[in-house]
Write a structure and sequence with these properties.
This protein is α/β, with parallel strands linked by helices and 729 residues long. The strands form five sheets. Strands 3-1-4-5-6-7 form a six-stranded parallel beta sheet, sandwiched between helices. Strands 8-11-12-13-14-15 form a six-stranded parallel beta sheet. The longest helix has 33 residues, at 496-528.
């Protein structure tokens, strides 16, 4: 038996596959577990059952090799295309056709077939296509029916359709279903082999109109027993080293046995099974113990379907359980428990506009203060009430199912064109994962080093996937692969040299983007990283002493005036004041530093006089700003209290705890506080590039370049090492 979780095509027709995936398929594990149970019970006597699994987002599906397997003597091979979502359906059909062309039995199931048959009928064109190709359609859950399907495979009596979900009141009991079985081979293809997915319940009691869950898995919560969950978690931990689970339940908070489930996980942790987990919950009010017990049980992150901050949108989509005025208090409760909040947000709901969406995203960031966000474009999927109503009304939907991924505009919006809709969607990702917002998020968690470092890794992943890899973070992986011949029918296969040239350009661009991204994250880390109490005391003392000096010398005013003057000065003289960038941010840690600063500060008078001579004959903003700078310099210099400052530093004995950070600590004149920043490094490289461009080779000092390069290397090594150590732990 071959179990395949298909991928999808990108907009250029290439199969989306990564060197390392991120989110293992729970469906593969469930079906592998069901098959292992059939084998263990000896249902088919001495017949040997072999199971191979392939998650196409992280593994190449060896079609030709699988076909060769089927030709082995005394072999009956069946290919199961499992967990197929609507956007994966075209790729699944293409794979199925390849296998059917060589006479292999092919089955296909998942939310697309289940939702289509449940809410529409088997007469839909895409289902009829499967029948024509001889692909067996499976609708619904196969617990309790898997034995019979396998028997039909062995006897050559497969039916065109197996439908198990049309009666939502008679869905299978999953309380004591066989445990899912992880494929160690498949796990090697994922970034973290210690990260697993599992569902502890199915169904959801709510009635969101965009959701397919309720019309496939029902609105009655069906739960696995706490003992079942304990057995699975314990086995995964001991046999596979999995210490983090994503509970894929659509709504963990509506489980009747949530307390018992938390208690059994708490007990496991006390036994030494140190597992943690992420879960999906709603925004309705919880029992008072829910959040506390969740954190104690090992919950580190919750995914919350906020969907919108506009009450009109929530009402229109049947999301009545979400109360926007309660968002802040609910999120704060999770934060107080040390749990990161991951918001799911839909863009393109009925009352969204191109002007309103950016404001709503700002509200999500500034007021609600979500830590992580996943954005989706409203997409009517087969199995949802929205899709059914649109079909009834005959409204246009993009016929290309490959685009039904919640990342494309596939319907007409009442207030936005497709281009506007796409733009606000992309801008939402850029705004949330901007340097400014990431700095705010990590600053909120700097008091909790464990959460902080896990969040650093998570935010890096999400920004890389959404803004660099251009894939949704929840389905993306690390380092996109493009197989030349694995292209959607109708797309030309490039000659090998052309393909290699395109991939080379893609990879070079990717590496440059990663380099810029790494420098950005280094800057954020320097500004937000957790600090020891000793370092905090040191910073406070420096801010007190140096703040007084900077105020006396009016350096904040100098900084503002300089920023304006720099823009107004002619290019030929602008470089004369460039050293002020370094001088104004200089950190004074000793009397020696103070004397060096004062000497350089005095030298500014000479530079100003030189500038006066160069622009004396010119009129305009440059001359005006130079007059202002000159006046500031003379006034501040006359009011200096040098001897008093020297005596202060004679009594200042404490030093920065870490030598590493000594290179990157600066003083921000505008905010009058100590900051950690790599801006001096960036400024040096920018000036060097300008010197090279203008052929000012005399301004380039190799010794300074070597020192700066060493500082860069030291910073990058320290940051990367900290990330890797966090990832390993």
């Amino acid at each position: 038996m071959v179990l395949i979780k298909p991928s999808k095509y990108d907009d250029d027709g290439y199969v989306i596959r990564f060197w390392k995936g991120v989110l293992p398929s729970n469906t593969l594990s469930v079906l592998r577990g069901l098959t292992d149970d059939v084998r263990a019970r000896g249902i088919f006597g001495d017949i040997q059952i072999r199971v191979d699994t392939f998650d196409e987002t992280a593994e190449r599906v060896p079609v030709k090799e699988i076909i060769r397997w089927s030709r082995s003597p005394a072999t009956k091979l069946v290919v199961c295309l499992v967990g197929v979502q609507t956007n994966q359906f075209p790729r699944a059909v293409d794979l199925g056709k390849q296998f059917r062309a060589h006479g292999l039995d092919v089955l296909m199931g998942g939310f697309h077939t289940s939702g289509t048959i449940n809410m529409l009928s088997e007469q839909e064109p895409d289902i009829q296509e499967l029948f024509r190709e001889g692909i067996v359609v499976v609708s619904g859950e196969v617990e309790g029916s898997w034995d019979g399907i396998l028997a039909d495979v062995l006897n050559g009596e497969l039916k065109p359709l197996y439908s198990f979900a049309q009666d939502l009141k008679s869905l299978p009991d999953i309380e004591t279903a066989p445990l899912p079985a992880i494929s160690p081979k498949s796990m090697r293809h994922f970034v973290s082999p210690t990260f697993g997915t599992v569902e502890t319940s199915r169904g959801c009691p709510f009635a969101c109109t965009f959701c397919t869950i309720i019309n496939v898995q029902g609105r009655t919560m069906r739960e696995r027993s706490p003992e079942w969950i304990a057995d699975l978690v314990r086995r995964n931990y001991r046999e596979h080293g999995i210490d983090f689970h994503f509970f894929t339940d659509d709504n963990f908070a509506r489980k009747k046995l949530w307390r018992e489930t938390f208690e059994v996980l708490i007990r496991l942790r006390r036994e030494g099974v140190k597992v943690s987990f992420m879960m999906q919950v709603d925004l309705a009010r919880k029992p008072k113990d829910f959040v506390r017990l969740a954190a104690e049980a090992g919950c580190t992150q919750v995914f919350i379907g906020m969907e919108s901050v506009n009450p009109q949108n929530l009402k229109a989509e049947g999301k009545s359980q979400n109360k926007v005025d309660e968002y802040v208090d609910i999120i704060r409760e999770w934060h107080d428990a040390g749990v990161v909040v991951h918001a799911g947000y839909i863009i393109g709901l009925p009352f969204d506009t191109k002007d309103q969406v950016p404001s709503d995203i700002q509200y999500l960031m500034e007021v609600i203060q979500a830590d992580v966000a996943s954005f989706f474009m409203l997409t009517p999927l087969p199995g949802s009430h929205d899709h059914l109503e649109m079909k009834k009304r005959g409204e246009w939907m993009d016929p290309d199912l490959n685009k039904r991924d919640s990342f494309h505009a596939v319907v007409k919006h009442p207030h936005m064109t497709a281009e506007e809709w796409t733009q606000v969607y992309e801008e939402a990702w850029k705004a949330f994962y901007s340097k400014e917002n990431l700095t705010k998020i990590l600053s909120r968690w700097s008091h909790n080093p464990k959460v902080y470092w896990n969040l650093v890794f998570g935010l890096m992943w999400y920004k890389n996937a959404s803004l660099i890899e251009k894939q949704h973070p929840m389905i993306a992986g690390f380092f996109r692969l493009k197989e030349r011949q694995a292209r959607r029918p109708g797309y030309a296969v490039d000659p090998l040299p052309v393909h290699l040239w395109k991939r080379t350009k893609d990879v070079l661009w990717l590496f440059r983007s990663w380099a810029r991204f790494l420098k950005e994250m280094e800057e954020i880390w320097l500004q937000t990283r957790p600090r020891s109490e000793r370092e905090k005391r040191f910073v406070e003392e420096v801010e007190r002493i140096q703040g007084e000096i900077w105020q006396t010398l009016r350096i904040a005013e100098w900084q503002k005036a300089y920023n304006d003057a720099k823009a107004a000065l002619p290019a030929r003289v602008r470089a004369l004041l460039d050293p002020f960038e370094d001088l104004s941010s200089m950190i004074l840690l000793s009397r020696k530093d103070l004397d060096a600063f004062l000497k350089q500060w005095e030298g500014l008078q000479v530079r100003l006089q030189e500038l006066y001579r160069r622009v004396a004959s010119e009129e305009g903003p440059a001359k005006t700003w130079l007059d202002h700078l000159h006046g500031l310099h003379e006034d501040s210099w006359q009011s200096r209290k040098v001897q008093e400052w020297r005596e202060t530093y004679n009594g200042f004995r404490e030093r920065l705890p870490s030598q590493l950070h000594r290179f990157y600590v600066k003083f921000d004149a505008l905010s009058n506080r100590v900051v950690y920043s790599r801006q001096d490094l960036g400024r040096f490289w920018m000036r060097t590039r300008e010197d090279l461009r203008e052929k000012r080779f005399w301004g380039i000092r190799p010794s300074r370049m070597a020192v700066t390069f060493c500082k860069e290397l030291l910073l990058t090594t320290a940051f990367a090492g900290r990330i890797l150590s966090t990832f390993r732990t």
